[in-house]
## 1
Amino acid sequence: MLRKSDIERIESTLEEMFPEAFCELIHQNPFELVVAVALSAQATDVLVNKVTPGLFAAYPTPDRLAAAPVEEIEEKIKRLGLYRNKAKNIKALAEQLLVLHGGEVPTDRAGLEALPGVGRKTANVVLSVAFDVPAFAVDTHVERVSKRLGICRWKDNVMQVEQTLMKRFKRERWSKLHHQFIFFGRYHCKAQRPNCLECPLLDMCREGKKRTKGLLPPLEGK
């Protein structure tokens, strides 16, 4: 298990590397955000950002999206994987916002997770980004980084990763750290080609040590 000093080092390193980390999904309001995050499942933020401008221009409000034929929604998001299922989900999501929430995105976890196509990760992102509620959303980047650095166990599921991160880091830092973990995983500690040799956390990274074995000069005195 990592020591408190290790956790503090990780936090300070991420802050130094990515002080301006933010949600890269383009949105103007909570409605656009919840739709964008729902669409981002198994898709990159870059691709979602190419699709959503046309989608939101055509359907800027829940009532407009709810009234749209699902075939038209499919046409606007067909570059995304699973676009047919996602089109059905965001249409149903808009309908539920109208029927149960007066057209507004709910500000509580239970209300968010009850929306079609919205799971815990999406709810965490919306709570954090749209409503400033501390949350630690775990996507593939967050999970990969937290396991490589030994914060979490390789066998931990997503919920266990989230719970561990919330225990190890201060609540007021969750939302910012969530984005910093994502930036670190997206632009530095990549899934296939991580920048191990330039990583300031290499000495505590289980994956990095394997990848760089024999590539680094021996430590002085060894």
## 2
Amino acid sequence: MSWEYLGYFASAFLVVSLTMTDVVKLRWFNLVGCICFTIYGLAIEALPVAITNGLLSILNIYHLYKLHIEREPTID
């Protein structure tokens, strides 16, 4: 497999994520793109790419968790 295709795939997910009007969808698409870029960066031994996108993945997961907690109805 050519790692270049994974880079294009990741780029496409990041671009699509920026077209989303729903923040949750934006975060999910961005997360997939960041995970793909993390793998891509590790595969081509580009640590700045892998580290940056790995950290962005963690931030996306954190914000998705916060959004999930905010949307859950409370039981009184």
## 3
Amino acid sequence: MSSMDMGGMDMGNMPMPASASSTPAAAGASPAAKDGDMAGMKHGQMPDPATAAKALSTGTMDMGSMDMGGMQQGAMPGMDHADHAKGARPSASSSMSGMSGNASGDSMSGMAMGAMQGGNAPPDARSPDYSDGVGYGDRSGMDMVPPKVGRLLLDNLEAVHGRNANGQAWELQAWYGGDTDKLWLRSEGERSAGRLEDGSAEVLWNHLMATYWSTQLGVRRDIGVDPGRTWAAFGVEGLAPYFFDVEATAYVGQSGRTAARFRATYDVLFTQRLILTPEFELNAYGKADPARRLGAGVSDASLGLRLRYEIRREFAPYVGVNWVRRFGATAGYAQRDHQPVFDPQFVAGVRIWF
């Protein structure tokens, strides 16, 4: 058998004796069954293990005379079983007719491969979409529609102690909508001596244009003791690199008036609750407005530092300092009104959102 390639033979279909005593050879084989000669075996019989081992070790096993009729039909594709039906002993050439070459050849190229490849998939094969035949069913109502959300943030609600006067100030933002579009409200102002000195309110439509960035379009209304002004507003708002919150807005008003506002903040976390927030704001106008004590060009700038402690995320008291500087004609109006051109302020307040 060392010279014969038996690859492809299903050895699981060859019945093996449970013990030597139970084999036909042990019970009394034909006298013709000698060591190394298996021609005398009866149809379907196999030698006892000792005889088979000796025949294999000496190389005298005669595969041509070995009766293969005991194998299950179909175990060796291409085998001619006609001789078995007639009771004759098949030769090696007739039994192995499906194979190319002689009994001593190593090539299996002539074997028909149809039984090994192609055809239908086995019953337990996995389905291509891994559904295993389970339908998806009705998925109505499962669309991921982003919900509408709202928020009100009182960023600064504080008492102010300046060079010439004490007062109160506020900055707030509120919005409502989805991920793409929101209705946005923004307001800030100052109150002193029991009256509203200066303030503004903006209503904007916020539209997402890129990750972390959105455009804003709406109107602004100036309020206070001076004459009110109405502006069309458009700008951008978002998170710049290194986590700077940025707002840049341009305004167009009546009588050819124009204005611009830039604001940036940044949170420095000393701990998860103790946070320092620097804030910078710059305002400019295209033309002078003496009624509101504003000159053309850059009118004022402010820089603030506020240190807050978040007792809860929604509630954080803070203390800080704010420096306000007026420029150009706006500084001249302040001097004539006996107001400081440079005004350092101490502030204390609370930040609330819900």
## 4
Amino acid sequence: MTEAPKAGQLTFVAPRRAKPQRHLADLTMAERRAAVVELGEKAFRADQLSRHYFGKLTETADEMTDLPAASREVLAQLMPDLLTPVREITCDDGTTRKTLWKLFDGSLVESVLMRYPDRATICVSSQAGCGMNCPFCATGQAGLTRNMSTAEIVGQVVAGARTLARGEVPGGPGRVNNIVFMGMGEPMANYKAVIGAVHRMVDPSPEGLGISARGVTVSTVGLVPAIEKLSNEGLPVTLAVSLHAPDDELRDTLVPINTRWKVAEVLDAAWAYAAKTKRRVSIEYALIKDINDQEWRADLLGRLLKNKLVHVNLIPLNPTPGSKWTASRPEDERAFVRRLEFHGVPVTVRDTRGREIDGACGQLAAANPTS
């Protein structure tokens, strides 16, 4: 029972945030059927609606000409517009496309569609802003505005899938192969919505988009209880741990949540995830000039990771305007790679797509503040 405030005691009541409209992507198939019945339609209309949205990538109910016009008008209530494009910029001859989206409450989020010769990847946001406060990250500097809903997350993927299907990206019509939760926000801090979104992505049509779970990567800065929870979901997605430092002293500064869960605890949770799912863990490591790119730190990282089911993804830091943080020198990057390879740790340096289009997540939103 909550104790009543004493006389003269100040209390703080968090303001109630309006929620985005309910969308069919927020719902399981059973919930969609119930929602359709509530609207006065037959339950099977939920299957038709889902097949259009997830299978045919139909944009509006008006386009569903195999449904009676009266039904389309009713079912449109389950397909509200949740994402409004504010700005889109491209590079790499049009094969990298970054979109700034406005949500219903004016919050801004970003997604990036990247097409390669053999695949197409979309990087999605899971929160508007981020509460993890990592000092080298544009989103972290902005702070957390709110969690995104499942449908707002899924909507980024569906929008990218439509763009590819229409042949609007050089290379002809295509489809999304990979989804990475490496946009704005800490996915594990919005756990329920993110897991719902993953299900919509991997469940077969008409339940979802039918993308392979092995093509989905969920990142985290190291929220240990959430990693443990994810290992029990039965979803063979790739876990990516944004480590950025192998020692607690530095990581406490670069990734402040490390003051709660230390490097050893985070890695133990990651190895338990790998053991349970048989999926290789990705260690994300942003190389920052003279901060975390020393060879002795590469050796320490190598000793922590050797003989584990792991892959290191080194990321040349994409600096934010005015930041003191910048990318490592090429010779230091090469030395870091050599030391990890010496320890037998698989390592690659991430493709630096998007630098010329405010590639670091949060930069485009910061440059386009809401009015």
